[in-house]
Amino acid sequence: MITVDFGTLALRSGDKVLDLGGGEGRHVIGFYVEEDVHAIGVDLGFHDLQTTAKKFEPFAEQQNTRKQFHLACTNALQLPFADASFDKVVCSEVLEHIPDYAGALREIERVLKPGGVAAISVPRYAPEWICWALSDEYHNNEGGHLRIFKEHSLRREIENTGLCFIRRHWAHALHSVYWWLQCAFWKTKEQNWLVQQWHKLVVWDMMERPVLTNTLERMLNPLIGKSVVMYFYKRSQP
């Protein structure tokens, strides 16, 4: 399940790439496989990092001087990296979980090199609002979503750190429907037939990438895409 568009991110051989709050490694492993980069994934959840390390095992033999992979357990508000350390920074579906998300934005700007690109995604306002309306349990749990972002407000806050907007797109319309079903049948979601069938559909779509569902999702993304993904660059000069 890749949220970020690698073409817009423009990975290049030799890049140092940070996946901030990468969870179980979907992006950081993807970067490593895609290009000869130094890919670093950080997360506050140690168990998620263990899962990432396990998923990475089939690719570990590819490591060489041009392609490196590292993981670290750390706080998004106190990244253990020097200023201007990374060519690319990705922060996907993370800010909604952090009380001081503005502090995380400042850290992203700090560790990004001049001329570097940052990709930041959060749940989109309308699909997320429907989830909150259908189920309190969806967000009232440990590690749950603390807020619903409005795209224009978040974009303005990111630009206020000094980063410059490039473009934005939406992603994962089929997952919006899946989460609406989960929220509607929260107490029985694991056993609910409709939830189970839609889960099979989204897994099949991710694994097989069939033309039918790919086309359907591209058409639905502007309407109900679950995530909004925004891209920014850091000026080479202030």
Structure description:
By secondary structure, the chain is of the alpha/beta class. It has a domain at 6-124 and 142-172 and 225-234: Rossmann fold, CATH 3.40.50.150. It has helices spanning 6-9, 26-34, 46-56, 101-111, 125-134, 151-160, 173-184, 193-208, 211-224, and strands spanning 16-20, 38-43, 68-73, 86-92, 112-123, 163-171, 227-234. It has a seven-stranded mixed beta sheet, sandwiched between helices. The longest helix is centred in the last third of the chain and has 16 residues, at 193-208. The protein is globular. The termini are far apart.
What are the salient characteristics of this protein?
7 strands, seven-stranded mixed β-sheet, 238 residues, Rossmann fold, 9 helices, alpha/beta
The CATH class of the domain at 6-124 and 142-172 and 225-234 is identified as Alpha Beta
CATH architecture of the domain at 6-124 and 142-172 and 225-234: 3-Layer(aba) Sandwich
Largest sheet: 7 strands, mixed
Which fold does the CATH topology of the domain at 6-124 and 142-172 and 225-234 refer to? Answer: Rossmann fold
Q: How would you sum up the global shape?
A: globular
Helix content: 40-55%
Mean pLDDT: 94
Strand content: 15-25%
Strand order in the largest sheet? 3-2-1-4-5-7-6
Number of helices: 9
- Secondary structural class: alpha/beta
Can you tell me the residue ranges where pLDDT is under 50 for at least 5 consecutive residues?
A: none
Distance between the termini: 36 Å
The CATH homologous superfamily of the domain at 6-124 and 142-172 and 225-234 is called Vaccinia Virus protein VP39
Radius of gyration: 18 Å
Count of β-strands: 7
What is the element string, with H for helices and E for strands? HEHEHEEHEHHEHHHE
